Amino acid sequence: MLIKLNSKIISVLPIAIAVNIACVLIWLLNITDQSMPLILGVIAASLVDLDHRLSGRLKNIFYTVIAFSISSLVTQYFLNQGIWFVLAMTAMTFLFTMIGAVGQRYSTIAFGTLVVSLYTTLAYLPDTPWYINPLMILSGTLLYSFITVTVHLCFPNRPLQEKISRAFVALADYLDAKSVFFDPDDVEHLSQKQLTLAMKNSQVINVFNECRTALFYRMQDNNRYSYTSKMCRYYMSAQDIHEKANSSHFDYKTLATQLKNSDLIFRIQRLLELQAQACRDIAQQLQKNQDFQPHFRLERAISGISQSFELYSQQHNASPELVHIKTLLDNLRNIHCQLQSLSQPIHEPEQRTIYSENITGLSKILQRIGQHFTFQSPLFRHAMRLSLVVLICCSLVEYFHLQTDRGYWILLTIIFVCQPNYSATKLRLKQRIIGTILGVIVGSLLPYMTSTLEAKLAVVVIASTLFYFFRSNNYSYSTFFITIQVLASFDIMGFDIYAALLPRLIDTLIGTALAWFAVSYLWSDWKYLQLNNVISQLMKSNANYLLYIISHLQFGKGDDLKYRIVRRHAHDNATVLSTIISNMNNEPKKYTQHLQQGFELLKLNTALLGYISALGAYREQMQKLTQDVYFLSEFYPIAKKIIELLDKMTTLSAVQFDDLFQPINISIKNSLEQNDLLSSVFNMPMQQLNLIAQLLPPLYAAIPQTATQTIQDNKHEITST
Fold first, then answer.
1. Residues 165 and 286: beta-carbon distance below 8 Å
2. Are residues 482 and 501 in the same domain?
3. From the record, what ranges are coiled-coil (predicted)?
4. How many domains does the chain have?
5. 356 part of a folded domain
6. Same domain, 540 and 490
7. Which run of H or of E encompasses 30?
């Protein structure tokens, strides 16, 4: 707990220092009337604080200040201008939401810019000169930016270190989920284990993507720092460990039955658990900024499992599963070697390339945004939904003249609560309401506890810091502290705090109700379920992944960067499917006809990725295979037919699928019946093709018929046109 706390403290240092300085300035200069926009400027800047190298941070600050200036000035100009203000807010909401299509960096700054426009309305006072609010908000933004750059100079590697640490924690959870497959006393719950593994795999891929982006920004400079190279090495090792752990070589139920009376399967499970603990140890050492030292039990477990396998192979030398067990153990030894390598210093770090889809240039940015101008895009639906709600809310505030009553708290609630999908919005609604109610209750006691300006400013500092501390991991707490901060700010500005309590609560309830209505009835997710497109992309990415591995096997060489890209795309698409199924599971009544098939598809795709990954992990042992005429004539034609079937799977009718699958099945059976093949080194890759092929019929059956029918109908329409 202390280790995590230290990391969190470093992350909240900028806002804690910035709000402290702002409150000291408010006290020294006696500018209590301008305290709210100044503090809100600091908070807005913290919302767009992105991890980057120094030059990247300065560039982000430059763009942020420009965006905040335009947003605040435009909002201030159109305030109290009726329909023009409504139209301006609606247009900004739609524009800033759609900018999120470009990437996370643009999305974060755009959201912060939209929040600044709302902060400008909330801090508005009729008697204050027009330029004061924008000036104070920008002053708070620049103050926070200066502090965050200073903190970055003191702890330049901490954010990257934290991401790599989280990657190894996620990897440890994945290895633990994998280890339960080797429990011979629990073979009946294999389906649930596969679903759990799929969810853990999604978490690993999401954290890996964060690490890749952070490394990409830091490695853009020609001068690569040694610590960045070290973290890149850790990231590459984590990827290699995941590839080996993701590999599947057999049916786990069959293996557990065969090995249930042998200590080998228990040793495999124990070794995976020890390797998971080693990954957690690496994460902790990174947090402590110390070198990793593997536990002696890990080496002892490797030695024990080797002896156990040698004894088992002597007793079962005719077993066809021996080659697969040996390949599994080779992968576990490879994971062990990767863990061992991280404990050894590298004097000449290997130059590795990090790839990230970084969109640059105005034409490409506009093209990417234009691709989302369709109701099939969740982002476009979210932008339309949010814009319409903003239009309604602003119109109500203007019509009923609620500006001076802080009616725009409703709008602020909507912007923060309304998420792109129903499940996330539903969770935010509950957390927002709970946090606000508790904040109002505690806030009502503030006049009794803070009778002096110094005490009120101290409450603002503490509440703002804790708001940021809980912002990403507990939204209820975050809402609770920002409510207290707002009420304390009202008290500092001279407003009656008790007059603000009930409106704050009512505005929150109205805002959450409007957000719920928007995601439930305005272009609802379940009316635009794109499961067919997701499955099509998933199958094509699996086919590309297998194609690259087969090409590497055939020609004996391959580009490691390209391999990692196609592998990541396959896992990214699997993560998209996992996220969709998870969201569907939160609303089972709305997705009854798709949910069961979705779970089955998720399990089968997890198994398929495991079988393909096993071939990928084997690609380095290709020297003998590329020299054998028999292998070339048997293996590659079958593999290419499987790739073609995977690529076209969602477009095939049942008859077409059967016509393509039967020749593959017959060819594999004929190849496996060759005695010389069974006793050669070619058994493993051919068996992997057999495992992949046997998954194809249930995989095709799990694809919703609406998916194949929709794609076929689209093709018929195009043909007739």
1. yes
2. yes
3. none
4. 3
5. no
6. no
7. none
